[in-house]
Amino acid sequence: MGKKIKVLIAKPGLDGHDRGAKVVAMALRDAGMEVIYTGLRQSPEDIAKAALQEDVDVIGLSILSGAHMKLCPRVLEFMKQYGIGEKPVFVGGIIPEDDALELKKMGIFEVFGPGTSLEKIIDSMRKIVK
Amino acid sequence: MTELSLEKLKAEDVKEISKALTIIENDPIEAKKIVGALDEKDYCVIGLTGSPGSGKSTLTDRLASLFSLKEKIGIIAVDPSSPFTGGAFLGDRIRMKRTSRNDNVYIRSMASRGKLGGLSPSIYNAVELLGRCGFKKVFVETVGAGQSETDIANLADIVLLVLAPGLGDEIQMLKAGIMEIGDIYVVNKMDIEGASRLKSRIEAVLDFSNHRKDVILTDGIKGTNLEELARLIEKELQFLKESGKIDEKRKKRKRFNKLNTVFQELKELPDEAIDRLVEELKKLTGGR
Ligand code: B12
Ligand SMILES: Nc1nc2c(ncn2[C@@H]2O[C@H](COP(=O)(O)OP(=O)(O)OP(=O)(O)O)[C@@H](O)[C@H]2O)c(=O)[nH]1
Ligand SMILES: [Mg+2]
């Protein structure tokens, strides 16, 4: 029995745009992954805690509110605090290019903006979980 | 044991418990070893089943929250795997926001993995691990379809059958005989038209089949009657303990765990070995 890839898809902060998060979650499910979706309005601590309890391979954050520069470092901080700082974090949504670079420096693994093909997202997740 | 610290597990470390559950889900042989390395403890399993969308997650969240005031609570929320891709969308946490912040509650989502509509065979060891890691009550939420009702009855000490008005499948539930599986009947969404009618209907069916069981109306969103439901659960547990029935339930759980593990191990064997086993089995069963 091969190991299943487990992914947490979360929406931090007060952002109500959940279409992208759901589209990505469904695509990952259809690619054979087990996707845990925690719904809207999660605090960075909630997300880290869920990732810890679920022992996921990847954490995916969907942020369209513009608050990514505030939220991402908080999520990374809590992940360290919970002892899971090594898990890769993907971010998607409305992220300007300069911010994307900054986020990657901070420790975010990948950033995907609008129009990214779902195949590309699936492939990059498969690549890191081997 | 693969990169797992037994000391940390015994100290009930959350990260270690999470890692152990992943191994248990992926490897039945390792699962047996991990669980076997921990001391057996006293705990109970409460199953929630019933129509999709009837409010199982919402109620689990509420109940776990109430019980967590005095003890550690574990939750395993099962959702179906796609039979085609093997993938799964596990969404029960959306309705478990209350307890996801509670340090006395541990939530784990689990896909049914291959068993159509049923529970993953690894659920027995997953539940047992939580029991041995100090969780006094383990809630198991499962969608009430296909095989899962009988599975949950084999696994749990108490089964809550959660129904709600307006979902349109209550009648099928009544017909399909799944009424026998519940120990406590919960008519959730009492704020919606038709709830009391559904309650009377269930009571009538239970009367007819001579089952003396509690039927309770709840509102999962407002929390109405949730303390009463928690009390019914404690009452039922008390009854199981005093009557000694709890031991039968535990034996049954262990038996099904063993059967499941054996089946997993058998699947790895070559055909000749299976043929030999079938011959041996014939001797045990008298040739049937
Ligand atoms: C649809 C939409 C809405 C809908 C949302 C419906 C819903 N339930 O999702 C409604 C009408 C409700 C809405 C409301 C608002 N919106 Co609006 N909305 C949009 C719009 C037009 C499309 C978003 C969308 O659904 N795209 C389709 C999905 C599939 O794409 P996506 O989310 O980008 O996802 C892709 C990638 O980003 C990536 N991805 C996304 N998440 C993740 C996660 C992971 C893990 C990975 C790997 C990848 C990934 O993969 C996906 C596939 O390629 C955008 C503009 C735009 N073109 O993006 C504005 C936009 C996001 N909205 C905006 C605003 C301002 C608002 C409002 C504040 C407007 C207002 N003043 O009231 C409100 C706020 C609502 C709230 N509570 O948060 C701004 C945000 C500006 C900013 N961030 O700086 C945008 C960019 C419009 C604009 N140009 O100004 N909105
Ligand atoms: N009106 C009303 N809605 C409720 C009540 N309890 C839960 N809900 C809502 O019913 C919907 C389904 O609730 P869940 O708790 O997710 O139900 P579930 O049985 O776990 O659903 P599945 O896991 O998908 O089978 C959600 O939108 C809840 O907010 C209630 O008492 N009254
Ligand atoms: Mg649910």
From TrEMBL, chain A:
Keyword Metal-binding belongs to the record: yes
Stretches assigned to the B12-binding domain: 4-130
InterPro entries assigned: Acid_CoA_mut_C (IPR006159), Cobalamin-bd (IPR006158), Cobalamin-bd_sf (IPR036724)
Superkingdom of source: Bacteria
A single GO molecular function term of this UniProt record: metal ion binding
Pfam families: B12-binding (PF02310)
Needed co-factor(s): adenosylcob(III)alamin
Keywords: Cobalamin, Cobalt, Isomerase, Metal-binding
Protein known as: Cobalamin B12-binding domain-containing protein
